């Protein structure tokens, strides 16, 4: 029987930290891969799709694996594969080789993502209090550390391979420290509990809300800089400030989110988060100056910070289907939003304008706010 205490909470945080470290290490390697393989923008874009495709293929299967073998085995194996594959991204010698490596890396990361969220749901449920925002906050912290260390090592003259290897060692170290206290047993009785069920309407509904939130996050990553430069007249050298403001606000919101959720409840936080995010999007569009637009990105980060953790908790606490399968389904739908977001915004921006596309994201956040009572689940 699984025993949940401080050690299990710490091991879960380390798993999220390891995932954030690994994921953030790829972005600084993209320019080197483009140069090394003499890739054009179109070729690079197709290769980048392999990362998302690998994750989307692996995520639905991970629910079955965690239900049968438990979180510990799946987290450790997928985490070890992530650490082993990561350096390969820095020296894949041909475009096909890089495509296969990205596909494998995406599959390992997708498996780690789902399995650590299943672990987080069980730990939070057995602990009897809100913990999910803090877990996701550690993923964000890992992202900052990983990207910062990669940039520092590359700036110091280390090769891309050595830099990626350094991050891989950190990921492996996190796994070694968390391994003894990860939940070993499945979240279902051995021999009991279905390994496949049809998606329930409640899970689909939660997944759609996750899709909308991740859609907004993906759009901020790829389009915030263009909004600030094209619509607000900000200098190109400062275009990254929008995403930086968003990411910092989201990290702060998640690290403090557990206390907020305990005090206000998941439904109110979902409602307020959706409204705050909507105000941020509308503010970024309507702001008369770049500083006010940056404030809009701060509001988006604060508003969105605890939406996904609350939805994951709701998916894990529903009783229509096993938690592991529900988390896998919701994660897959959410991740599809990250992949689809930039393209959808691009189509809308081309058809009408980027401002209207961002206003549409504000409307999506309003949908999340309006769905707070149902989306947060019964225990919220």
Automatic annotation (TrEMBL):
The chain crosses the membrane at residues 12-32, 44-67, 74-92, 98-123, 135-155, 161-183, 195-220, 240-257, 269-287, 293-313, 325-350, 356-376. One of its GO terms (molecular function) is transmembrane transporter activity. One of its GO terms (cellular component) is membrane. It holds the Pfam family MFS_1. Keywords: Membrane, Transmembrane, Transmembrane helix. It is found in: Membrane. Residues 202-380 form the Major facilitator superfamily (MFS) profile domain. CDD domains: MFS_MosC_like (cd17393). It comes from the Bacteria. It is a multi-pass membrane protein. This is MFS transporter.
């Amino acid at each position: 029987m699984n025993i949940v205490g401080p050690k299990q909470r710490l091991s879960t945080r380390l798993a999220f930290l390891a995932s954030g470290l690994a994921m953030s290490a790829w972005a600084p390697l993209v320019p080197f891969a483009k140069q090394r393989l003499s890739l054009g923008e179109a070729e690079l874009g197709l290769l980048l799709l392999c990362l998302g495709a690998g994750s989307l293929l692996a995520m639905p299967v991970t629910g079955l694996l965690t239900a049968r073998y438990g979180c510990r085995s799946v987290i450790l194996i997928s985490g070890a594969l992530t650490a082993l594959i990561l350096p390969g991204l820095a020296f894949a010698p041909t475009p096909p080789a890089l495509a296969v490596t990205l596909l494998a890396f995406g599959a390992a990361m997708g498996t780690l993502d789902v399995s650590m969220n299943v672990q987080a749901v069980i730990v939070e449920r057995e602990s009897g209090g809100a913990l999910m925002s803090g877990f996701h906050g550690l993923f964000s912290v890992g992202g900052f550390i990983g990207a910062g260390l990669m940039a520092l090592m590359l700036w110091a003259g280390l090769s891309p391979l050595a830099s990626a290897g350094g991050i891989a060692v950190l990921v492996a170290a996190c796994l070694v420290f968390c391994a003894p206290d990860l939940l070993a047993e499945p979240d279902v009785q051995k021999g009991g509990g279905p390994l496949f069920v049809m998606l329930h309407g409640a899970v689909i509904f939660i997944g759609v809300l996750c899709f909308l939130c991740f859609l907004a996050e993906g759009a901020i990553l790829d389009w915030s800089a263009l909004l600030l430069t094209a619509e607000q007249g900000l200098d190109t050298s400062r275009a990254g400030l929008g995403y930086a403001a968003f990411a910092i606000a989201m990290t702060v919101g998640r690290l403090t989110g557990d206390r907020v959720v305990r005090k206000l409840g998941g439904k109110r936080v979902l409602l307020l988060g959706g409204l705050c995010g909507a105000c941020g999007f509308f503010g970024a569009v309507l702001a008369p100056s770049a500083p006010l637009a940056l404030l809009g990105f701060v509001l988006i980060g604060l508003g969105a910070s605890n939406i996904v953790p609350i939805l994951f908790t709701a998916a894990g606490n529903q009783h229509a289907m096993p938690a592991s399968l529900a988390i896998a389904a919701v994660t897959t739908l959410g991740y599809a939003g990250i992949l689809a977001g930039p393209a959808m915004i691009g189509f809308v921006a081309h058809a009408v304008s980027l401002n209207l596309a961002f206003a549409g994201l504000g409307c999506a956040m309003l949908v999340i706010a309006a769905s707070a009572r149902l989306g947060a689940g019964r225990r919220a």
